[in-house]
Amino acid sequence: MKTEVTAVFDLGKTNKKFLLYDEALQPVYKSSVQLPGAVDEDLYPCEDYVLLKDWMLSTFAEAVHHAKYRIKGVNFSAYGATLVHLNRAGEPIAPIYNYLKPYDPALQHGLYERYGGRSAFSSQTASPPLGHLNSGLTLYWLQQQHPDVYRQIHNSLHLPEFCSFLFSEERYSGITSVGCHTHLWDFTRLEYHRWAAAEGLLEKLAPLAAARSAAQRVFNGVPVLVGRGLHDSSAALIPHLKREERPFLLLSTGTWCITLNPFSQEPLTDTELDADCLCYLSYEGAPVRAARYFAGKIHEDMVNGLCKEYGKSPAYFYDLPFDEGLGLIAEEAYDLHESISYYHQPNAAQAYHHFMYSLVRHLLPSIQLAKGRTPVRRLIVEGGFCRNKIFMTLLRRFCPQMEVLTSGDEEASALGAAMLTQELYQEHALVMA
Hints:
Elements: E1 3-11, E2 16-21, E3 27-33, E4 38-39, E5 45-46, H1 49-64, E6 69-78, E7 83-86, H2 105-114, H3 118-125, H4 135-145, H5 147-152, E8 155-158, H6 159-168, E9 173-174, H7 175-178, E10 185-186, E11 191-192, H8 194-198, E12 208-209, E13 214-219, E14 222-227, E15 230-231, H9 232-243, E16 249-253, E17 257-261, H10 270-274, E18 277-281, E19 287-293, H11 295-310, H12 314-318, H13 324-337, H14 348-371, E20 378-383, H15 389-398, E21 403-406, H16 412-432
Parallel strand pairs: 1-6, 6-14, 6-15, 9-12, 16-20, 20-21
Antiparallel strand pairs: 1-2, 2-3, 4-5, 7-8, 10-11, 13-14, 16-17, 17-19, 18-19
Helix pairs in contact: 9-16, 11-14, 13-14, 14-15
Domain Carbohydrate kinase FGGY C-terminal: 246-306
Protein name: FGGY-family carbohydrate kinase
Domain Carbohydrate kinase FGGY N-terminal: 8-195
């Protein structure tokens, strides 16, 4: 007898994962790939549409025909601020632009000035100016600087909803993606910002769909619910919102370390926006205060450098225990110099302790920004840094007023997508009845 499972594609910038969860929400299968990238017309790195699509469809086809599993539903969590531009036939007509691609400051400034100035615009959209990380600005950039391409766009879908489209053939905009520092959503009015309509961008966006919605399709003769997709940070909150009885902060660690606060009722100030504090939307459409630091990428680059300098493998650093003496040396060096040369230490362990001390210290302001004035005393850490003993030891020491916990969830964003999909089974069964 086949095991009934929920499938989830969990797409990070670096790692693309496919997971199957049983009815107890335990992962029974997981695979991971790192797909080679492509480049756009400016030779800037970007996602490879063909490789991504082929991997997803072939991976799912193999799972659907697996002798051991019966897939009841599939959903998607993926990184945000990334649009896939499709023509009427559903084919891409532009690269999947990288959100780190430099943005024309004059174009951005001119838009702000037409709609009340940078401060008002940022406050209303609950996001500082971030260039292509404000994905609405990517669509505006195409309209203004690549009009021939823009005219061919029938719909621009954010990455989670594009993944859903590959399986459902339905085009929708998800609330968690639209609310992900896009500059498209007005958090003061809880609707699209007026600039998106005034500039004609809404014509290129698919209709809004709730996270609690799905399409039903048949694969290999079996009906399968296809979820609409979720921004990964919003998906990662779902398990904790359902389990925790007390307020908490969630520190989701990956390429970005993002601190999420779903309990804040404060509007963002100009100072907080200038410090890169912003808001997401939860899967239920509620504002989530957030702040981020590029800690995962900084860590990856530094470990690669330390491996070359000291002749170690990455595993050496990932498994290194915290050493009190090396921690004290790192503290003294940081206090005296604010920075040190990590490549000129007596050994690899000391260099890594110095680096991690600095990394965690630089992460703290983003945690405090997300916390704001919310009376919360619990910080839950999920993701790759959960397993880093030095990171967790230092974080607890730097946050003595907080109860710092690690999540037992290996992939919180994938689990959140699976949880929501399982709830949809019952809701759709009631509708069908």
